[in-house]
UniProtKB/TrEMBL annotation:
It is found in: Membrane. Residues 6-97 form the SLC26A/SulP transporter domain. It is a multi-pass membrane protein. The lineage of its organism: Bacteria, Pseudomonadati, Pseudomonadota, Gammaproteobacteria, Vibrionales. InterPro entries: SLC26A/SulP_dom. One of its GO terms (cellular component) is membrane. This is SulP family inorganic anion transporter. Keywords: Membrane, Transmembrane, Transmembrane helix.
Length: 97
């Protein structure tokens, strides 16, 4: 990088190290019902995606998955990650295949 003219490159600053701090979620009482409905829809879609990925994994490995275990892992991870302000996730089909 020193060999090139880097004076006009923007710098973003220091990259934080360590775990993020625990965040208490802000819940607006007026939007609570709407948030619960949205959360249920997103949770359902995440479950469908995770189970679809498990079925695809079954066809690749010729083994049968345990649906309860497949849903417990991402569910617990999503609840904990929400406390740290992280984004929810689900089974990744491309990573499985």
């Amino acid at each position: 990088v020193i060999l090139f003219d880097t004076e006009d490159i923007r710098r973003i600053g220091e990259i934080p190290a360590g775990l993020p701090s625990l965040v208490a979620p802000y819940i607006d009482t007026e939007m609570f019902v709407e948030m619960v409905i949205d959360a249920l829809v997103l949770g359902t879609l995440g479950c469908i995606d995770t189970l679809l990925t498990a079925v695809i994994g079954d066809s690749v490995t010729r083994k049968e998955h345990d649906s309860d275990k497949e849903l417990r892992g991402p569910g617990l991870a999503n609840m904990i990650s929400g406390l740290f302000g992280a984004l929810p996730g689900a089974g990744a089909t491309m990573g499985t295949v």
